[in-house]
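haha ok so turns out i had the wrong file open the whole time. this is the CORRECT one, sorry everyone. sequence first:
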Amino acid sequence: MTIFSKVINELRSSEIRDLMKLANKPGMILFSGGMPDNDLFPLDIMDSLYNHLTDAEKKVAMQYGPTSGIPELLASLELFLKKKGLPVGSNRLMITTGSLQAINILAKAFTDPGDTIITENPCFIGAISAFKSYQANIVSVPLLSDGIDIERLKDTLDHSPSNPRFIYLTPNFHNPAGTLYTADRKHEIATLLKGRNIPLIEDDVYSDLYFHNEDKPHLKTFKEINPDGIDVCYTGSFSKILGPGLRLGWMLVPEYIYNKCELIKQSFDACSPSFSQMLAHKFLQTQAVYPYISKVREEYAKRAMIMTEQLHHYLGDIVQFTIPRGGFYIWLKLPSNLDATTILEKAIAKGVVVVTGKTFDPHGVINNYIRLSYCNTSADKICKGIPLLAEAIRASL
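then structure:
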């Protein structure tokens, strides 16, 4: 029998990926997938962008490209990020095959087997899987309503037997918790990390999807703050602002880190798809990105409000959650005696799919939470599905 490596034998399939198999069953209401709604994709715009490509541009799109990305997209993306206030002039930009590849590359660059890294708890399952694939020792710090628990983070850093190789955070509309770090919490983190020689990997795929203008002061990223004494490795994605099928993300990092990451990407896939890159370039260059983001932001805000109202009506006396102010998710806290896996089984039987909390616990233990996605489900299905989920939860009390 073929023998696999120890690393591979320790990997497990994501529960979210397993749940995706249920998507093809007729009549299922999916609160599970963290993906845009197919009906919201800008199909007419993409058709027009392709149809207006010159022959020269089509040839670029069909060919291998530089590891760092085709020059056209690098230029238009730099302008897009500069408009957001990011320090593109003093950093290097690399196009990656989705933002998860950027996270994966950075983890590989920084981590040897057994090295300690720090994440939030809960944490994005894709990042957890990437870190485990490099046999990192994951130390998690609880996430509070205003950001990571700063006192617990300080205690963790002060008492770590070795300097953590990096800290991974999702400050703006966290997956799965939906949390928006306050400006004060970001300042506290920057102060705490200064001079410790611990890189900060900042995962920022949701910040364009804010629902309230008054939150803009809190949306300022660590990369935009650009704190002295901290190497901020910023990652982003086209998945939430255009379409995940393009498989395009990016990293914006200091040059000496970029140089190592470029070598790693060369060994991964040589380059990201040029065809997707050319379309993304045109989406930015023509400014089509801005009205499209405004359109989907408005729709997601509407769906979030409807889901919130339904949860208050059917489960307000049982569950706790923070009203989302952007992003894709509501993080539902169940009574401590309930197990989310049991509720998932009852919900599936009623035709509703959710994701259990332990999926996002780096240690796979905490399981009295449920992640609900409103991004991929229409308003009428939200109104139909939440009462069914409520029945499953109440049946478990």
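The mean pLDDT is 95.
again sry for the mixup
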